[in-house]
Automatic annotation (TrEMBL):
<dbReference type="GO" id="GO:0071949">
    <property type="term" value="F:FAD binding"/>
</dbReference>
<feature type="domain" description="FAD-binding PCMH-type">
    <location>
        <begin position="1"/>
        <end position="173"/>
    </location>
</feature>
<dbReference type="InterPro" id="IPR036318">
    <property type="entry name" value="FAD-bd_PCMH-like_sf"/>
</dbReference>
<dbReference type="InterPro" id="IPR016164">
    <property type="entry name" value="FAD-linked_Oxase-like_C"/>
</dbReference>
<keyword id="KW-0285">Flavoprotein</keyword>
<keyword id="KW-0274">FAD</keyword>
<dbReference type="InterPro" id="IPR016169">
    <property type="entry name" value="FAD-bd_PCMH_sub2"/>
</dbReference>
<dbReference type="GO" id="GO:0003824">
    <property type="term" value="F:catalytic activity"/>
</dbReference>
<dbReference type="InterPro" id="IPR016166">
    <property type="entry name" value="FAD-bd_PCMH"/>
</dbReference>
<dbReference type="InterPro" id="IPR006094">
    <property type="entry name" value="Oxid_FAD_bind_N"/>
</dbReference>
<dbReference type="Pfam" id="PF01565">
    <property type="entry name" value="FAD_binding_4"/>
</dbReference>
<protein>
    <submittedName>
        <fullName>Glycolate oxidase FAD binding subunit</fullName>
    </submittedName>
</protein>
Length: 354
């Protein structure tokens, strides 16, 4: 386990100085997800020295750590007790931090079966736009519009406040894991996945890499082995899932722009989209390599109830995240006004004006 260092007072002082100088702050941890969202300018505030596991009780399945703690350090500490972060957050680089993982709110291949990052956030400490260091569940602040503010930090990309500490629910590691490769095309894979969804199968990963359906089965030894025998296919190396999580598969290299399409659970794919697809989350998440116009990609994704985010490439797009409906944008603006009235934290990272 690494060093435990509390730099909350120094971070709070930097926020006070930014308020006094009326300058925005660009929050950074490991910078492993700096490519996501809109480009922002501001005085850098670095969380990496504010690090360490504050409390970990394996019997209660709860871990609390400071925002700058390396994500690998968190995972190593959990692995010693055969436990894990069930949301399987991606790293996208060796420097990924715990706070960055929560602020980005990104989940790995297990997400449809275990839950998202926000589902496991139990509480947090943060510095708001008034330079107050608040603890939710301890140093109580009224929730804005009745929302659980600690969970609102997941996926906020640092636009609402500066996270300093997070408490998360953790889970035991599965006793047994098998990865299967089934030689099926995309259409047949989605048809079978829809049928398997109503059956008691221990699936915790389902991805089509363009050539075959990859399935991860996890659970007790007997149930996993019986399910593998029933489903068929070849048993292959399970490293596929970490490579998928961190975009280390060959699919994620290339010159074309990379898009993330988030779809409803009915698994209907957008029609007539040019490019190459990799399917994850049993069809609820599509990675698309395409040079097609952003408006076309979003129009055809929205037609099946989804939304599209420009992940990498096509840097001329002013709004990488799917535009918000007016009502949701107004809600985001009210939250920002309450927590960060001076617009200090990562202004414009998600959307212009936020």
């Amino acid at each position: 386990m690494g060093d435990s260092i509390d730099r909350s007072d120094a971070l709070q002082e930097q926020v006070r100085a930014a308020i006094a100088d009326d300058v925005p702050l660009r929050i950074r941890g490991g910078n492993s997800k700096a490519f996501l969202g809109r480009r922002i300018e501001g005085r850098e505030i670095d969380t990496r020295e504010h690090r360490g596991i504050v409390h970990y009780d394996p019997t209660e399945l709860v871990l609390t750590a400071r925002a700058g703690t390396p994500l690998r350090e968190i995972e190593a500490a959990l692995a010693e007790h055969n436990q894990m972060l069930p949301c399987e957050p991606p790293h996208f680089g060796d420097g990924a931090t715990f706070g960055g993982a929560v602020a980005a709110g990104l989940s790995g291949p297990r997400r449809p079966w275990s839950g998202a990052v926000r589902d496991f956030v139990l509480g947090c400490r943060l510095i708001d736009g008034h330079a107050r260091h608040l603890r939710f569940g301890g140093e109580v602040m009224k929730n804005v519009a009745g929302y659980d503010l600690s969970r609102l930090m997941a996926g906020s990309f640092g636009t609402l406040a500066l996270l300093t500490e997070i408490s998360m629910k953790v889970l035991p590691r599965p006793l047994h894991t098998i990865t299967l490769k089934l030689d099926l095309d995309i259409a047949e894979s989605l048809r079978r996945l829809a049928g398997w969804a109503s059956q008691p199968l221990p699936i915790s990963g389902a991805s089509h890499d363009g050539t075959a359906l990859m399935l991860r089965l996890e659970g007790g030894h007997g149930s996993v082995e019986a399910s593998a025998a029933r489903l068929g296919g070849d048993i292959v190396d399970g490293q596929f899932w970490s490579a998928l999580r961190d975009h280390e598969l060959p699919f994620f290299t290339g010159e074309q722009a990379l898009w993330r399409l988030s779809l409803p659970t009915h698994k209907q794919l957008p029609q007539h989209l040019p490019g190459t697809m990799l399917i994850d989350w049993a069809g609820a998440q599509i990675w698309l390599r395409s040079d097609a116009d952003a408006a076309l990609i979003r129009e055809r994704t929205a037609a099946v109830g989804g939304h599209a985010t420009r992940w990498r490439g096509a840097s001329d797009i002013d709004c990488p995240f799917h535009p918000l409906p007016a009502a949701l944008l107004a809600l985001q603006q009210r939250l920002k006004a309450q927590l960060d009235p001076q617009g200090l934290f990562n202004p414009g990272r998600l959307y212009a004006g936020l």
